[in-house]
Amino acid sequence: MAKANHTLVNEFILIGFAGSPELQVLLFIFFLIIYSITLLANFAMFLLIQIDSRLHTPMYFFLSNLSLLDLCYSSVVTPKMLIGFLTESKTISLRECAAQMWFFGFFVGVEGYLLSSMAYDRYVAISHPLLYTVMMSRKTCLLLLVPLCFAGLLNAMTHTVMTFQLTFCKSKINHFFCDIPAVISLSCSETQINKMVLFIMSCTHGSLNSIFIIISYIYILCAILRMQSAEGQGKALSTCSTHLTAVSIFYVTLFCIYVRPSHSFLPAQGKVFSVFYAVITPMLNPLIYSIRNKEVQTAVGRVIRRKGLL
Question: I need a surface site. Which of 26, 45, 110, 280 has the fewest CB within 10 A?
Fold first, then answer.
C-alpha cells in the first residue's frame, strides 16, 4: 500500500554544504587540501613500514593496516563530496549510494576493532615485554585480522541490506554522503526497526571496543608506574598518548552521530561531526603517529639516506 501511495525514487540528491558559489569553491579547496594530505600521509606511512625492516613489528603491522584503512574509507566519501562542490548535479543513484554505505560501513567497522587490537598490542608490549614476540607473533597478528574483517562485514551487510529494503519517497539527502541515519530519514516505510538495530549495534560495537581499550590502558598505566626507568616511562607514555588521541577523536565523533538521539542536534551539527570522523580523522592518524614517534622519524631518515636524497 505504501508503494501505491508514494512516488518512488531511483536516485538521491546529496545536498552537502549549502552556500554561495564562492563559498563552495573555498570549501572545495579546503577539503581538497585535507584529502591530499590524507592520501600522501597515509600512503607514505604504509610504504615506510613496508620498506623499513626495523618497523616490521606488531605495532607497525597494525599501524600500516590503519593507514591502509584510512586511505580506503576517506576515498569512499571525499571524492564524491569534492565533485559536489563544483557541479550543479549532485545526484547519486541508489546503487552508488548503497555501495558507498556498504564500503564505508565495512572500513569504519574494521577500524574500530583495529584500534582495540592496537591497544592490546601496547598492553602486551608494556606489561609483558619478555613474552611480547611470542604472544604477538606474525601468525597471531594475522589471526587478529579475521574477527576485524568479520565485524566490518557484519556492520556493512546489516545496515546496507536493511536500509535499501525500505521504500523511499523523498530524494534529498541532507548530508554530503550516504550516511545511514540521513538515508533512513527519506523513507516512507516504517523505520523504527532500522533505527533500533543501528542504535543497538553502534552501542554494542562502540561499548565493547571502548571498554576493551579502557581496560587495556588501565593495565598499561599500572605497568608504566612500576617502571624504574624515567626514560622508559616517558617513551611508553608518549606511545600510548598518541594512540589514545587517535582513539578519542574517532570514537567521540562516532558516538555523537550513531548513539546520541537524532533529535538532540540539528542536521548541520551532524555534518560537522561526520566531517571529523569521515574526513579529518584519516588525515590526523598518520600525522599523530609520525610527529610524536621517534622510531618513525628515524626510519624516515634512514630511508632518505639510503635513497641518496641527502
Answer: 26
1-21 residue pLDDT tens? 444 444 477 889 998 887 788
CA distance 261 to 292: 36
CA–CA distance from 149 to each of 113, 134, 175, 289 (Å)?
9, 24, 27, 23
What CA–CA distance (Å, rounded) separates 191 from 279?
28
Q: Distance (Å, rounded) from C-alpha 80 to C-alpha 158?
A: 24
d(C-alpha 265, C-alpha 7), whole Å: 29
Percentages helix, strand, coil for the chain (3-state, rounded to 5) are 80, 5, 20
Residue 14 CB neighbours (<10 A): 21
State CA 194 to chain mean position distance: 22
For 13, the enclosing helix (H) or strand (E) is strand 11-14
Positive or negative, the CA dihedral 129, 113, 152, 287 is negative
Torsion of CA 30, 35, 41, 47, to 10 degrees: -160
* Per-residue pLDDT reduced to its tens digit, 181-200: 889 989 888 889 998 998 88
Helix (H), strand (E) at residue 91 = strand 91-93
DSSP state of 55: G
Q: Which residue has the higher pLDDT, 187 or 246?
A: 187
| Burial class (CB within 10 angstroms; exposed 0-12, middle 13-18, buried 19+) of 112 | buried
36-40 long-range contacts, Cβ below 8 Å, gap at least 24?
A: 37/283, 37/287, 38/70, 38/71, 38/74, 38/78, 38/279, 38/282, 38/283, 39/71, 39/74, 39/75
> Cα angle at 266 between 262 and 269, to 5 degrees?
100
